[in-house]
């Protein structure tokens, strides 16, 4: 009875040319990785509602098994990515230019993560130096990204990596030139990301000896 009913439903959907769309909801990577949930909720989450970085899915799949619990991470920009990294590394320090967003994010962070407000400008760009630390991972996913890349490279550990999100944008094209001059190579991770439906790219810049074992 149920089988017959399912068959009738599929016949009806196919007649309306909706069968393929429904199939995507039922059996696809868009469903499995939580893209549908993120798109409808406008939150960067996986299929179970857990936080994800707002970066491409290929990048997330690549970096997650390479993260180690002694890593220290700095982020330009904050949100669900801050929570996601904090669950897997020793500590996360983030900077934001929006005071209201800082309050929203801070309420959700675990004890090993912190977000700081800095007005957009020199204090924002230089926020990576406040702690006096060097970081295994620096993520550039906020404002003034080219300036942040140039400044923060000196605050990487000897095996540290820099991550630039939305690196396909023409306004960030110069980044690869100056990173190459500093001895970095890179991997571009093109693909879909939570919430949005267009193709985007997240890039990892690394040196020969790096903490991700690339």
Q: What report would you give on this structure?
A:
The protein is of the alpha/beta class. It has ten helices and seven strands. It folds into two domains: 2-32; 35-206, Vaccinia Virus protein VP39 (Rossmann fold), CATH 3.40.50. A seven-stranded mixed β-sheet has the order 3-2-1-4-5-7-6, with helices on both faces. The N and C termini lie far apart (54 Å). This is FkbM family methyltransferase. It comes from Runella rosea. InterPro entries: SAM-dependent_MTases_sf.
Nutshell version of this structure?
With 214 residues, the chain is an alpha/beta fold. Helix content is 35%, strand content 21%.
The H-and-E topology, N to C, reads as: HHHHHEHEHEHEHEHEE
Strand order of the largest sheet: 3-2-1-4-5-7-6
Query: What is the CATH topology assignment of the largest domain?
Result: Rossmann fold
Count of DSSP H/I helices = 10
CATH architecture descriptor of the largest domain: 3-Layer(aba) Sandwich
- Which parts are unreliable, with pLDDT below 50 for 5 consecutive residues or more? 18-22
Tell me the Rg in angstroms: 20 Å
Keywords: Methyltransferase, Transferase
Protein name: FkbM family methyltransferase
GO molecular function: methyltransferase activity
InterPro entries: SAM-dependent_MTases_sf (IPR029063)
């Amino acid at each position: 009875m149920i089988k017959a009913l399912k068959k009738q439903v599929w016949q009806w959907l196919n007649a309306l040319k909706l069968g393929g769309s429904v199939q995507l909801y039922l059996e696809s990577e868009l469903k499995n990785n939580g893209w549908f949930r993120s798109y409808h909720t406008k939150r960067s989450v996986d299929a179970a509602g857990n936080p994800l970085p707002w970066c491409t899915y290929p990048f997330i799949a690549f970096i997650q098994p390479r993260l180690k619990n002694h890593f220290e991470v700095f982020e330009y920009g904050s949100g669900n990515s801050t929570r996601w990294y904090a669950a897997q590394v020793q500590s996360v320090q983030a900077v934001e230019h929006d005071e209201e967003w800082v309050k929203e994010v801070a309420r959700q962070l675990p004890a090993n993560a912190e977000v700081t407000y800095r007005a957009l400008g020199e204090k924002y760009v230089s926020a990576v130096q406040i702690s006096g630390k060097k970081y295994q991972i620096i993520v550039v996913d906020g404002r003034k990204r080219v300036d942040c890349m140039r400044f923060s490279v000196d605050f990487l550990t000897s095996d540290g990596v820099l991550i630039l999100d939305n690196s396909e944008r023409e306004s960030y094209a110069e980044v690869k030139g100056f990173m190459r001059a500093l001895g970095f190579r890179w991997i571009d991770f093109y693909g879909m990301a939570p919430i949005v439906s267009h193709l985007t790219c997240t890039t990892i810049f690394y040196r020969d000896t790096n903490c991700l074992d690339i």
